[in-house]
């Protein structure tokens, strides 16, 4: 991929156009000038069984995700096509959502019938590569959305779609640009698949290790199910030094980052049991204010639990957040470090086992919440301390892999964004 990109050469000239500066040897063309046909879609009569459950895939705007067609949910018959406004768009052509979900688009992965949410666009292959036009429309998708804002029309009019201006290098250059971006996108997809597979594998490990342990042969029946014979059933209060709900306090004095302590808020808690490590995202409380509420001061190895709204989110307090202070809608869970290994407890608190019991114990109000007395009574199966560490190490290694692949994916997405910016505008040229 990198070999196909050449440095911007001295002497290359650019010209001003309605879509910005582009190389002088590129053209600007309206979509209607490079298309041979535009096709509307439709929905076969849903009450007629003869039109449905056939062999022809049929999609709506809801069937697009990440600028691709999701797994097909519905199929129609040839009669369904014949007796409705739908059209079958041949594989490899553009699918553009022009009603609900404007801004979504895809390349047809196979011959596919479309609903009235979608416009199929057939391009003149002598003038344009569908993949290049796809990437440029993806690049300007926010502009497509803005086209319909402030109007009473729920969608992108055909006339407006046809008039979209597009940069147009020669077709061979279009194809190389599209291939670079498509290749990178495929790497991103593979990375996403690795992340999801690792998450699934970790979930299975959690189910096994947090209830069955490592290589046990003998088990005992308990009130929370069958557990290894050496484990104990305890309540959360039995393994914690303190569980404390925040007080209601007002008139918080906020200060600059360097002269206060971080304030932990629910939105800073990530789904993996960690808190944001970007300290610029935090607000800072004056030390004097924080000291007025000593029971909400947090220490390394403590946890914060979101108790309202997105109830159940868990955040582990690392060393760099020592002496931070929590704000409203959080509860402090301070484990007894002689009984519980904090990394093991993190895995327990984010597990389905704990989360299901947390929600079962919550108040049945419009907004779910949990009080400290109810939280303290939640039961857990406690392994010996040494085994807690082994279990935590196994699960933490899976977390590290997920985190590593997530960072890699973010880097690839940043690279993709940058390449789209320079390749689709001709700021960086490719060798043809």
Give a nutshell description of this structure.
The protein has eleven helices and 25 strands. It has 432 residues and is of the alpha+beta class. Strand 15 (219-222) and strand 16 form a beta hairpin.
Features:
432 residues; alpha+beta; Helix Hairpins; Adenine-n6-DNA-methyltransferase TaqI, Chain A, domain 2; 3 domains; four-stranded antiparallel β-sheet; four-stranded mixed β-sheet; 11 helices
SSE blueprint:
Elements: E1 14-15, E2 22-23, E3 27-30, H1 31-34, E4 35-39, E5 52-59, E6 64-65, E7 68-69, E8 74-76, H2 78-82, E9 88-89, E10 94-97, E11 105-107, E12 112-114, E13 118-123, H3 130-139, H4 141-148, H5 158-162, E14 165-168, H6 171-212, E15 219-222, E16 225-228, E17 232-235, E18 240-245, E19 260-264, E20 283-286, H7 287-291, E21 303-306, E22 314-316, E23 325-326, E24 330-335, H8 342-350, H9 352-361, H10 372-376, E25 379-382, H11 385-423
Parallel strand pairs: 5-12, 19-23
Antiparallel strand pairs: 1-2, 3-14, 4-13, 5-8, 6-7, 9-12, 10-11, 10-13, 15-16, 17-25, 18-24, 19-20, 21-22, 21-24
Helix pairs in contact: 3-6, 6-11, 8-11
